[in-house]
Amino acid sequence: SFVLLCLLTLAATRLYAYENAPLDRTITGSVKDEKGDALPGVSVVLKGTTRGTTSVADGSYRLDVPENNATLVFSFVGYQSQEVAVGNRTKVDVQLAVGDRSLEEVVVVGYGSQRKQDITSAVSVINMKDIGEQPANNMNQMLQGRAAGVVVKTKAGTPGGAFEVRVRGVGSLGAGSNPLYVIDGFAVGTSVGQNLNPNDIESISVLKDAASTAIYGARGSNGVVLITTKNAKEGKTNVGFSLDYGIQSLPMTRRVKMLNGVEFAQFKKEIFEDQIRILQKREPTLDEVPIGFRYPEQTKYSTDWYGLILHNNAPYTDANLNITSGQGPLKAMISAGYYKEEGTVKKTNYDRFSIRSNLGGQVNKFINVGLNINGTYTRQNLANTDGRSALLGGALLMDPRDTPYNADGSLKPYSNGVDGVFGFPNPLYVLENVLRRRSIADLLTNAYVEVSFLKDFKFRTSANIKLNNNTYKEYVPSTIGLSVASGTAGAPPRIATETDNTEELVNYSLDQLLTYNPKIGDQHSLDFLVGYTAQQERVRGFTGSGNTFPDDLVPFLGSASIRSSTSYEYGWVNLAALARANYSYKDKYLLSASFRREGSSRFGAKNKYGNFPAASVGWRISEESFMPKTDWLSDLKLRASFGVTGNNDIGNYPSLAFVGANNYILGNAFAAGKVVSSFANSELKWEKSNQLDLGMDVALFNNKLTLNLEYYKKITNDMLLPISIPAVSGFTTSLANIGKVQNRGVEIGADFRTNIGPVNFRTNANITFNRSKILAIKGANDMLYYGSFYGGYNVQKVGRPIGMIYGYKKMGIFNTQAEIDAWPKQDGAIPGAMKFADTNGDGVITYDTQDMVEIGNPNPAFTWAWTFAADYKRFDLNVMFVGAQDFDVYRNIEASTMNMDGVFNVLDKAKDRWRSPENPGSNPNAKNSQGGTSYFKWSRESSERYVYDGSYMWLKTVTIGYNLPKVKSILSDARIFVTGNNLLMFTKYPGNNPDAGVRGGTELNNDDESYPIPRTFAAGIKLNF
Amino acid sequence: DLFYKTETQLLQALNGVYGQLQTITTSAYIFQEFPSDNTTLDFNPLDRGGAAGWEAFEFSTVNQGNGEISNVWNQYYSMMYNINYTLEKMAGSSVDAAVKGPIEGQLKFIRAYSYFNLVQYFGDVVLVTKTLDKPDAAFDLTRSPQTEVWAQVEKDLKEAVALLPATYPSGQAGRVTKGAALSLLGKTYLTQKKYADAVTTLKQVTGYTLNPLYADNFNPAKKNGPESIFEIQFQGGNDLGEWSTFAYTFAPRLSAGAVTGFANTTPGGRNIPTNDMIAAYEPGDLRKDVSLKTSYTLNGTVVNIPYIIKFTYPHTITGRTDNNWPVLRYADVLLMLAESINEATGPSAEVFDYLNQVRKRAGLAAVAGLDKAALRDAIMKERRVELAFENHRWFDLRRTKTPAELSAFMSAYGAKEKAKPTVDRGGIAFNALDYVYTDNEYYLPIPAPQILISSKLTQNPGY
Fold first, then answer.
1. Complex ipTM
2. What domains does chain B contain, in order, with CATH numbers?
3. Whole-prediction pTM value?
């Protein structure tokens, strides 16, 4: 392509038709902003021509204009454009007013950009300027609450962890549902990972409907997030520095409360007595109660294991230095950042060094070049935190009567289960002694050359490369015991283990784009784009593991007595040709069509290529002559779009059958063996979505109030699902193109800004209603369910929403043996046990999935966000609420923390349990109240008992800032602020976080006690020199 | 498409099937020993959560949601796919017929062995002898009557007998031989009560002798000995991933290193010999001390929990034992011969001779002069102790009893266990349904997930 490029460059030089207009006189002047400060980078254009310039660092400009009737157009992103008739003047000074989300604003879209007013598809734009300061270790966080239809879930508070982002619902049952992320034109994949400093981001566009995403073809179905990094603006050199420092902690109100030592001993005592009463039908004597809990009030210790492992003042620091130079033909932005965060769970942390250099500019009249380089190095100390047998679950379940420390003050490695309580490793000891470390070095580069040739043609060739090196090391010393182990069975010493993994990823793409933007009079505007893109990814990795170390002093594989290793390599290739045309007539009738033909290595031999067309229309009614020009209606646009997108997030080789190793011994020597490990299916097709979008954009009262309304309907066909097939085929699952899912919804966004006297207000609200429905799986009655005992289930059923929670329906509590006898047979039930529904009416509540039904809907009725900002003189305030309404969470950890066997500690509310028919606790028949007595078998299974309404309203951020007075010629801008994040949650949900979920995909809302979400208070300073 | 072309590849495909059989064998005790009166489990009064799937086989509470039946169903049919696929691909390859013959014989033996087990687990099962060209076709498959399944087992075994060599070079020891196919064919006839066919077939099993020491059958240093007809191969002491773990599965839960020799471990506590089993040994039976122990000593404390030691031998690496698993051995053939002849023609010198060969090695006096019924009982008792814990007992009970007799027999055993459990239950009472046997439990239920997925699959009665 470089040869081609050189040829084109030559051709362009020769063919360029230079406009040799008469130079009559020179106009000079300066441009100022609303505060009267110089505004560089403002575009100054002679109306009706392409002649123009931009203002320089001190706001001044200079332009040659013809003798008569010259009108200058001043425009700048974020400001209202201004037209000035020059008349006889030679000096024209203007002051631009802040544009209230000007329609002239340019929005980044797929493979290009468009004026906001010309857009005919559903695109949400997030400008970092609007977000203000908030602690953000991750770019996903910046999407939260900012765009209708984009739901960001904070599933866990792990330092450096990514959030879950869903654009317009979960679109697929089998393939992934993460959007595609595109950084400066480079489609990096379905995750940005930890490798982008949020401070380097200029803006984010979220493409939601098919008309905007179909140009990304096979990866467009789940929405596309376009990230644009900061570039130097026209102007003088600027040095910016910012420093935030904050502390994080888990508020007491969001901590799960368990029984303390005395209460637990009392509980154990009662459990023991109840067992004798119920199983042996007699009153126990005190002597029969084991000595350990015979006298609960004498319990010596009470340990809050959960509180023990929390870091209550976990600091984070975010420092950024940014230098921009906008003078000369090549402009540069260089930034360096350091972010460090201590986790709310002790010993877990994350830090990131990042350096970015964005260069770009005009080499000559014909050639534009750009080069962005971003290098990041992140380190993460992790812990196995999430789940019942991991640290956080264990910390809840452990015996509070044990102490974390030995008499000499050293940490106990293991809390031996005594008196029938299960043993767990001391979580603090685990945090201090288990090594889990990940480090990632990442290099991301974008380079392009853009050549203007002939008239109105531009050719852009770009090369993007991502290199990623990911290293993980885990060492579990011999002193770590087993979790959830009975008695001393899990006590250390155990076998020390180590795993080392290192992985190298290379991803590169080459894009060739040709645009043609002819001028055909005032009334028509037309642009064409054709392109060709090729992308390849290769991953190579190596894993070594070892165990049985002579001691714990040398945690390296070399000292393990047993070692094994494996290496692997995989990859994929995408090739695509794309085209798009935009046409508008009188800025009134807008038309856009795009097409992409794409091939992916991931599909079956018979269906390698897919076609992805889309079209959209827009009608700006407010421009029509029949619309009366009123004061209140500034703009009204109706839009409609339809298109086809694909989803190839299905793994790399699903269509091929694999032969895997399954070896044997013959003649007492190794004999290599092979077995087929999956069913080949060369007919696997693309999973395609058809999406209809109807939208309306309204701007009222001189753009003070803008409203945005969208209706969409997306149907995903030929879904790639691992369907269960009868095992007699040789396999239990097979990928097939079955299934159809529909997501329909309405998104409403509103933005209002005004000023009352000296106070400027701005408020923004958005609300999203999404309804998913499974239209077909295989046959009419088929369903898929995932889960297991002790784990909860999610079911996918035709005619129902995605991911319904599945389990036994709770009908109350058995108060007496007579009630048990009168009820359908529920094996092992004793008085105090939960009473379940015999849903299949066979007279037995079977201990499997037969009597399970849908018991909860994990999909919110709606999600919403509301931001409010105000500034007064030098003060400003920014507040954001987010919320989700009417959805259920399966609190799986309660299958253990409400397990009344007495082998675990239980929730504080267990004190109010059922004890006898006379003493049944409060409202025992309520859905979420528990039974009392020991009946292990039914309390650990998926039941309505553990389903809670997760509706919440979350005060996410409050920021108060103060702009310091400027110091002329030294300090151009200075600001201090304080901010709080995750401040207050209003919910009835009893767990730490209603967004928590330990599983992915369609297995929604299974809370098994995840890394808690901390509350953050921070203060910061921002300086510009 | 790229594989199954050369001799090496075909042999690797065959070895892969053996590898799958290895996995299946590791849990076969759950289906063939555990449900019987021979073994119980080391009850864990604390963890009443984790292990219900395999415990159900002891307590006779297996239901269609049971995970173990689902696993075994899937494992057998996965292996069946590889057998059938290799047979199909081999037919089209240009490899020499002399090479193909023994490979085909081995595959057909393993297929027959699989159905021999499946038909006794589940009754009517889906008979698959060729692979499907597309996944959807699996939804049309239905269960075949037991008679058809048995017919297929006989057919495969007869073909295997014709194709298999009597022995292999030492480097190939462990492969299926003609003797193995004949022994299994004999057992197939015996199970179907075709006694005359059983006698003629089993008499063709030649070239094997009893090991002088009973223990040699299980000693890793004496793998594939003169008595061994077919055993599943394992190898410990290295990183090849081919070790066995029986010693760990069967040692008492809290014995730490007292039984296995490696302290930092938590054994499985499964397949614990019952009081009934321990009492079945005649005084002076040399096999008792080779097969089981009734207590272990940990940190100076004697703990009275019985356990199997047949497969417990010193090994060098934690969790990786070197023991093979015996499937067919000559003592079994002798006892089957004795049983077949006694059933076909009644007691004879020949029958007593076969029986006494086995008793003699065990240090027991010869028996003589029994009538047919008494001799039948003597042979059964001998099978029980001679082949104890080698996954024969459940099939022996099923073969010799009707469903009604079996449930009555097992109920009697259950009553004994309930009255005096072999392992202390820490004060936890039995569930009402424990050890309640019904006639339908002669067959296991078809796994619930399979019934849910395929409308063409029917469930066994009573589940």
1. 0.91
2. 1-44+52-164+435-463 (1.25.40.890), 245-285+295-310 (no CATH)
3. 0.80
